């Protein structure tokens, strides 16, 4: 039976190798727009970050912050048109994914980078059995025989904890519960032992009990496989026990980057502070939850100043006149803010 563990080869057949000396992924200045009848939506505005080998990176922000569009843009999964990636680089395995050919990109998708979508019912083909959908990916990206592919599909189903896995391979998506379908999506994403996974709010459509099961499954798989993972969510509470590092997004930009423990203990951006204060806490039982006053920014204009300024309790003139960029404020910590949260005063620069 083919092994499910992640391969150790430095390069695959298409040349997309993963070096231990460099980040698995490096994103530089990613900018994505959508042309609509009402104008251009500036969905992603100059996003830059790195993903390290074996790292669990959380990407958080409220709806419309650009987190899902950013990560889907990495693999050109946005609809084009109306979407358009107008600038940036996505370096993976020595290649820029935004500039390789469509056939090369198809080998990366599912082969070297797996994607777990938010709603499995719209991502799975309703008229094809589960086993066939898993083996299709293996047929595209590997040289396994039909028998080996079927064995691998069964192993994947068992890995993600599906009961009666052999029988489930013969099922259609509508015959399974939402939690089972999401486990199948995870199995499909892991089929080719990718070096990197992107999970787009994979627990949003599930009830709380099933959410907890999926989160525990991901934690367990990460320990077994060591795959680098980007987890997109609007819930800071979800990434608290999962992530190594967190990117906080607002208005199509990264406003804070931090190791997860430091982020919770001492946020460096007013928006992050507002998100954390809005989380329910066991020691505040019966108290009213805090909220961030105001509305998210309009995305029909490219930002020229701080997008959070109209809602920020620390706003001053510079915030309304200049666009802040990420600055290093501590080892492995960055914030896109003109206000020094530690010292309670504007940065002196």
Commentary on this structure:
By secondary structure, the chain is α/β, with parallel strands linked by helices. Helices cover 30% and strands 23% of the residues. It contains twelve helices and 14 strands. It has helices at residues 67-74, 102-108, 120-123, 130-141, 146-159, 165-168, 178-190, 208-225, 236-240, 260-265, 270-277, 317-321; strands at residues 25-36, 39-51, 56-60, 83-92, 95-96, 113-116, 196-200, 228-233, 245-250, 253-259, 327-330, 333-335, 339-340, 345-346. The strands form three sheets. An eight-stranded mixed sheet has the order 6-7-8-3-9-10-12-11, with helices on both faces. α4 crosses α5. Residues 1-20 have low confidence and may be disordered.
Q: Helix/strand-derived class?
A: alpha/beta
- Return residue spans where pLDDT drops below 50 for at least 5 consecutive residues: 1-20
- What percentage of the residues does DSSP assign to strands (E)? 15-25%
Order of helices and strands: EEEHEEHEHHHHHEHEHEEHHHEEEE
- Separate helix tally: 12
Give the mean pLDDT. 87
* Strand line-up across the major sheet: 6-7-8-3-9-10-12-11
Distance between termini? Answer: 60 Å
What is the 3D form?
globular
Q: What Rg is obtained from the alpha carbons, in whole angstroms?
A: 21 Å
Count every beta strand, where a strand is a DSSP E run of 2 or more residues.
Answer: 14
Please summarize the sheet with the most strands. Answer: 8 strands, mixed
Report helical residue fraction.
Answer: 25-40%
Descriptive key words:
single chain; 349 residues; eight-stranded mixed beta sheet; four-stranded antiparallel beta sheet; disordered N terminus
